[in-house]
Amino acid sequence: MSDKLFTEFDPVSEAQWKQKIQYDLKGADYNETLITKTPSGIHIKPLYLPDSQVEMNLPSRATHDGGWYISQKIYCGNAAAANKKALDILNRGAEGLILDIPKADVDLEQLFDNLPAVGIQVHPRFMDLDFLDRLHKIAPNAYVHFDILHELGHRGNWFKNQKVDFEKHSKFLKNYKGYFSNITITTSHYQQAGATVVQELAYYAAHLHEYLNAYCHDASLQDDGIYSAFAKADKRINIDTTIGPDYFMQIAKYRAYRVITKSVGKLYDLNLEAYITATPSLRNKSLLDYNVNLLRTTTECMSAVLGGADTVHNLAYDAFFHKENEFGDRIARNQLLILKEEAYLNKVANVADGTYYINALTKELTEKAMQIFKEIEKAGGLVQSLFEGTIQRKTKESDTSEREKVQNGNQIMVGVNKFPNTAQPLQSEYEILPFQKIEHRKTLVTPISFKRLAEEIEKSEMPKK
């Protein structure tokens, strides 16, 4: 195509476009009519043009080759069954495994029998240094993910107590070289409890800062081995996240995660690298027309990939009301395989680079998140804010606001509050209780717990037993 086709026309600035739009609105207010106000406090304009382009110095994926990995989570209550399932799914397209370990007495030799040396994340639900030592001898190239601050925030208690937990965590970080022992930060409880994207990113920054501050400034925990390992980029920050429904906002969120990681690391003269693992959130999934969950998880996985997540593991459409089953697992895995092999989402790294809209979103998310982060630090940091209930209260406020919008129809959930599928009625019982489970136990802080947005609507339509 000839370049002359375009040189014949003068470029049009954003100000000129805005002037034209205001003329065509015939008196209607531009800001009220065309500016979208998000729960995160970001105002989305109707157009983004080169003259308002935001320059972004965006860190690349931790994989460096621009690739992303398809993984699948396996519950490892039974080592033999988990091993059999792991070998099967690796032969059917999965490129990695996330092993959910409920107890320390699992037979590790049986669990890891014939598994590959790399591509395995181990997520223990406990803190046991003897278990980690046994694991390192059997699988030294595994990537261990556990987060003592997530335990406090999500469960309401430390594993043992603050002093013991940090001492054990520091030993874990310094005892093992390389990526076996990284700082892991889990933000899924913030997102699934209703935090806005800005809040999620701000709490991540405070979460990361709490660890770095402890290991760099607390005399009882200081150890040159920990600090130097991160300073040399011999370790990295694992970020375990859930993906929300707002497609472009989520793309920007994952880009912002990397920018914030770099920014917080610079406070300690560290060149931090992040490895992001993402899975769709349960928050917007529903029993009502549950097949729509397949569409939701597809677009969510796409946004995580385009935003630069390193590992994506999908959520089965029926994960919250059916026990693990072959059909649900296979469909979830094949959704990712289609994105990679047929939609070619593995062919271009940082595909969102240069997009005016997403760059602007990334910059605004980062700036607003860092503002909240600074407020948290002025108030004493993440742990102090959890004990004072500040983070829980702010998250609850955001949750309540969104829940009310769903209830009154101002926020659309297809198949739930609009276009319901009357041919797919609710059942009186499900294999798994699909509603929020309340545990009556004593906690140090109010847990950041979550329930799905559609639960109240579902309960009102449940058939009588």
UniProtKB/TrEMBL annotation:
Stretches assigned to the Methylmalonyl-CoA mutase alpha/beta chain catalytic domain: 144-437
Xref: Gene3D superfamilies: Methylmalonyl-CoA mutase
Protein name in the entry: Methylmalonyl-CoA mutase
Any GO molecular function: cobalamin binding
Domain of life: Bacteria
Annotated InterPro entries: Cbl-dep_enz_cat, MeMalonylCoA_mutase_a/b_cat
